[in-house]
Request: fold
Amino acid sequence: MELGVLGMGAMGRAMARRLLDQGHTVAVWNRTPGRAAEVTDAGGREVSSPTEAASGAAAVLLSLADDRAVLDVVLEGARGAPLAGALGEAVLVDLSTVSPSTTRRVAGALARGRYVAAPVLGGPQTVLDGLATYLVAGPREAVDGLEPLWEALSPACRRVGEDPGTATTLKIVANYLLLSGLAALAEAVATAQGAGIDDEALRGFLSSLPLVAPGLHNRLDDLIDGDHQGWFAARLGAKDAHLMDDLAASVGLRLPLAGAVEERYRAVVDAGLGDADVGAVIEGLR
Reply:
């Protein structure tokens, strides 16, 4: 398939490389040029605009940072002509973590069958290895027509309905469970270290403890050792925690814990560690 990938952050680059490895033709774009070298070295083609990436494509995949970036690129044309008017027969597949209201707004602005939400559960390496989970939602005919794409991405492309907002709702809930669990684990680690527990003893205990969720194990070393070189930036963690708070408010709920979790990640950003991994949430305690 001819495909476009917009957004060359860690996830976008991994996505493009995965598709190239699976034999697809990929054009890539990023608002800041020069971030696509590993993709072009693997056979991808860097283009100068989102609309150029859409030209001749069967699907255009978005991997953008937030709601504002998605709206800018698709509807408002802040990076040139709005992508919505240049898709032609291409389907827009949005992998971004954004609010359900943004998802539904973009879907409503496109012709039926031209928008699918497919947010990702997993990091860049799991994407590259074809082991990530994709929450896929959109019109059945659009989803069915992209079967070669789903087959290339992962065997875990989970259809969650025809309303694209369902996919982004579930992704926000999943990210919140990660972020809140990580904040609690950071408190446990910092307290144990402060009480004089040896790092290796602490690592062995927590890594074998059933109470530590499996999805947190890959950040245990980072919390204990403190290099914070992972892929999920703390500024994006703060954004996702805020999305959870907003989502709850939209259905009449107030989540005290979600507000506290957002404050923890905002503090990391305010301390100048916004580009560090979300494991940097422990630094507010040290």
Remarks:
- The domain at 169-285 is CATH 1.10.1040.10 (N-(1-d-carboxylethyl)-l-norvaline Dehydrogenase; domain 2).
